[in-house]
Amino acid sequence: MLGLASKAEHDSWKAEINSLKFVTFGLTEKNLIHLKNMAQEWGAEIPNEEHLAKCIVANFDNNIDKQGTSFLGIQTYSPNRLSDSAFAASLPGYFLILAADIVNISKQLELLGVVKYYWISRFDSMTSSYYCQSLAGESLLNLSINSDMTVSCYCHDNLKEGYIGDLNINTLEEILDGEIAVSFRAYLAQGVFPTSLCHTCRDLRQIPAYVAKHKAHNYRLPETIMIENCAACNYSCKYCARRSILASRETIVISKDDMQKISLTLSRCNIKHVEFFKLGEPFLDAEIEEKLMILKEHNPDLFLVTSTNGMLIDSASKIEAAMAFDQMIFSVDGIDTRMLNMYQVGADFDAIMRNVRTLVNAKKERGLIKPELVWKYVVFSWNDSEDAIEKAFTLAKDIGFDKLRFTLGNVQQIWEDRSKRFFYEDFIPPDINGAVIEENNWPNDIVFDL
C-alpha cells in the first residue's frame, strides 16, 4: 500500500459504503467474495472492504483495450489509459492491480504516479493459465454462427477477432478441431490471450497450468450455440458499433439454404439449445418464420431463445415466428418513447408494448405458457429514478410479462451515463411485491419473477 489517506476521506468512504446495496463501480458482494478467494489462492494480501469500496482494477495486460473493460463486473483500465495523468487523477481511491509479471511491476507503477492508493496482487505461477468455456464446448452463450456462416467464439465479436472458421468451408466439428481453435486453446493454456477480447469474456477461466494443458486437448461439441440470422438493425442505438458489424459480415442475412445446413449441423452435433440472436435484430429478417421452421424440421425438441427490441413483431408471419420461441427477451430501456430514445434511437414504446400484448393474447387463446416473455430494462442515469422503476413493475405486470430483468448499462467511456442508483438499497421500491429470483445472473443483473 502506497500513500496515506486522511481520516476524513476514510470516514466519508465508509459512510458511502454503508448506504449501498452493492459496493460502487460494479463490485457486488459476490465480487468481493470472489476477489478474496482469488487473493488467498494467489498467496497475496487480502484486501478489506474499505480498500475495495473505492477500487478500480488496473489490469496490466497489454491486450486490454485502451478505453477499459470489465473484470468480474469491475471497471478495468490499461496502462496506456492510466498513463493519461488527467484521467487517472479523476479516478477515485484505491487501485486493485492484477499483475502477471511482478518483476516488471515497477515500470508499470510509474504510470500510476498520480494515483493515491493501490493494492498489488500477482498471478501465481500455478494459476497463470486459462481455458475458454466457449472453445471447450461448455458455454451457454458465446459460440456463434454469424450471418455470413462464419463461426466465432465470442458473442460481442463485431470485428471478428474471435473468428475460428467458416461453415461454408468446413463442418462445425472440423472448425472446433481446426488450426485456429486449437491454437487459441494452446495460447490460453500458456497464459496468453489470443485476442484482445478474451479478458472481457464471461467464459474465460483461470486454472492451474496442468489443468489448462489437459483442457487444451480435451473438449466436446457444444450443447448450445448462437445463430445470428440477421446482422442489421432497425435502431441507431447510442454506443452501437453497427458500422463495424456490417463491415465485418460478407452476408447480412442468413439464407434459407444456409439455415438448412445449420439445421442439419444442429441435429448431427446433438445441439439442443439455440440463442437465435447476436448483434442484429432477428425480426428484421423477412423470412424468420420459415427459417425457424427449418430449424425445427430436423430438431423438433430444440429450445429456442431470442432477444429483440420488439418493434417489428407486427404481422401475422412475425407473430407466428415469435410463438415458435421458448423464451423472448425484449430490450426496452425505459417507460416511454422519450426515455427509450435517449439510448435506443428509433424506438416507439407504445408500438412495442402493443406487440407484446398481442403475444400475451395469442398465448392465452392457444392455452400456451410459452414463449416466456422477459422485459430486459438496461439501467442508465436517465431511466433509473424510483418513479421509473416502480412504473416498469406496474407496466410489466399489466401487459403480461413473465419476468422483469434490470441490467446495468455498460457505458465505460461516459461515466455520467452510468446509473448510480442501481447500486443503492432503495433502487427497487420497498412496496414492490416481486420475488428476486436471481441476482448477479451476469455481473450486474437483477431478475424478478412477476
- Span from first to last CA? 47 Å
Mean pLDDT: 76
Computed over alpha carbons, the radius of gyration is 23 Å
Helix content: 25-40%
Extended strand count: 18
CATH class of the largest domain: Alpha Beta
Query: How many independent structural domains?
Result: 3
Helices, by number, come to 17
Looking at CATH, the homologous superfamily of the largest domain is: Aldolase class I
Structural class: alpha/beta
Shape: globular
Strand content: 15-25%
Strand order of the largest sheet: 9-8-7-11-12-13-14-15-16-18-17
CATH fold-level name of the largest domain = TIM Barrel
Low-confidence stretches: 1-7, 9-31, 38-80, 92-127
Sheet with the most strands, sense and barrel status: 11 strands, mixed
Based on the structure given, which CATH architecture of the largest domain is correct?
Alpha-Beta Barrel
